[in-house]
Amino acid sequence: MASSPCGNGNFDSGLEIKTRSVEQTLIPLVSQITTLINHKDKPKKSERTLAAIHRVGQAVSVAVGRFVAVGEAIATENQELKDEMGQACFEARRAGDAIAQLTDVASALPSQADGRVTVFSDRTGMVKAARLLLSSVTKVLVLADRIVIKQIITSRNKVLVTLDHLERVSTFQEFVQIFSQFGNEMVEFAHLTGDRQNDLKDEKKKARMAAARAVLEKCTMMLLTASKTCLRHPDCESARINKDGVFHRMRCALEQVIDIVTEARSCGENQLLPASIYNGIKDFKSSVECLRENLYSSSPQSMGSQLEALVERTEDFTDSAYTSHEQRQAILSVCQLARQDTQQLMNAWIEAQSVHAKEATEDMEVAILKTCQSIGDLRREVHKVAVGRATDLLKVHGEQLPLRALKTAGAEGNLEAVAEYSRKLTEQKEQLVEIISAAQTLALHPSSKIAKENLEVFCEAWESQLCDMALLLREINDVFEGRRGDKRPYLSLPRPGKLSANLKTAKAVKLDAEEQTSMAKLGLELRLLSSDLDTEVEKWEAQEHDIVRQSQSLASMAYNMYLFTRGEGLLKTTLDLFHQAEVLSEEGLQLCSALRTFSTQLVDEEKSVVMTELEKLVALCQQLQMGAKTPVQGKTATFQKVDSSIQTTKGILAVVLYLLPFCNKLSKKYKSERSSLGSPQDWRERQDASTPVREEGALNSKNSNGFGLKSLEQHMAGLNLLESK
């Protein structure tokens, strides 16, 4: 969306471009106009240059003419935009004609001195025409963009109407009929909002849109089973509560999408976001650093008050029963240090103001550095507590003990046990009310297959949410630790003559939305493994080691494959994925070679452990390589090949994840021994005979369910934006 509904129609009001498609449409026009204006700096041109400028000017005029024709057609089809669109098209056509006239060779005059032609004597006219053209074209695009918004709102309204009908059905036959219509309308809404999400420039809005669409996707399945259960057991109160909760969540998610699309909040009062300690620390640090630029923009007293407000927010951490004594003391100590450093800064600041200093004094600069350091330490301490608490919660839920017990109790019809496990779950997360009501329904009707299916669906949704939260927590921590969570792009797409002989006759296949959804769980498991692999790689001191470099490549390629399961990244088709799998297998075999070399320095027991895992790794790499090279025909076979490739890649990463820390431990151990002995003797001669014990769970397969994010078709209008609309 390029304009707010609250905005006016004036061209000089400043149009904010908020979608990538509008931005990309304007880029070629801006480039051509810039070319014309830049040539104004040298009014005397050769005939060749003059002809080129004339062609650019005429091309701009013709393109504007076609553009305006499309805009006028849109105005005809949408009467509510007729006046505004008509005015914008008129201004665009006028500006295009002006540019054509200013670049017309016939209007150029020969110079009396050298006979060369002088063009564009009216520089002011060219700049004015260029500005008018850009303004009017942008206005046309903004108005056309409103049609897209209107389509999304209309689609939402249709969904709401059908949702109301669906909520009131009383028979299975009526439910099946209306749910079929509801499904078709949700698919249309998903496509429209998916395109919009990809088109948004603001990353926060994209994230909010993705979250709302994910809720809608999960709730659609839960709505189906909850409604069936309610119809099967119409007198069951818990079944009704269960269904009502799902319908409420769907309506809230639909409204959130519309809020993002229409920017409803920008037209009224801005919604006050909850104050967070992260933003408080960020704002305070910014205020401190701003003193280097201006000593008089605020007062020392206001900075002291800002710090005290920040310290007060740390009480959420220090007063929590889940914060350990050591963590509490660390936060309190850092807060006291921040107070001391800030007071020192305030004293230096007051002294600088008293002598009317124009910039920060040396004492102030030292105090600024110390204050920023202490506030950074506070940020790290609260981050540790927050991440630790979130990790503990995920571990508790990750074991799924209360959830499994709840399902068992429901199936057995044990109402007392359902109440007990419901209480345990509610202590952790109040949003589990729908799962609890589903379990209560099953406990009341333990022989009901529909009630059992309904509880399974809700439990799976909760498990997938936990997996998504685990991934989010890991990425947040990566950002905090400076890793950013962004992978290096591994450019390994097919190139002529390179590993692509078997791809020439194959046909690229794009997975549809349903197949992409089934890949989402598998992809997230792969993502977690690749993230774990990155973490283990960073623990190696010798980052130039072959084992490290090849493991990094494996993690990067696995991440590309994960992005494929989401419909994102460099791998656009199944051919790209299979080629990536083939390259990954070769990199894996090279890692095997490096590990084999490493094992020659080990004693028998240690070597045996490495070689056992090495044999598994070689077999998996060969399996992946053969599978990637094997041609398949048909969509079903292609889908199975995709699934097999990702499963095998997961196996490869799991083996490497066991070997990396084990080899790193041995590498550090023998490096220490070599330093202490001061002799390059063979490691075998100095190794104390001991058999390493493989830690339980080292082959971390991450028994976590993926978050069912459906990768819908992703496309943008590009340069033909208006025509596609």
TrEMBL record:
Main location: cytoplasm
Gene3D superfamilies referenced in this protein's UniProt entry, alphabetically: Alpha-catenin/vinculin-like (1.20.120.230)
Record's keyword terms, sorted: Cytoplasm
Subcellular location: Cytoplasm
One BP term from GO: Rho protein signal transduction
Chain positions covered by the region annotation Disordered: 674-708
GO cellular component entries: cytoplasm
Top-level division of the source organism's lineage: Eukaryota
MF terms in GO: actin filament binding; cadherin binding
Biased composition (Basic and acidic residues): 682-697
InterPro entries on file: Alpha-catenin/vinculin-like_sf, Alpha_catenin, CTNNAL1, Vinculin/catenin
Family: Belongs to the vinculin/alpha-catenin family.
Official protein name in the record: Alpha-catulin
Organism annotation: Scophthalmus maximus (Turbot)
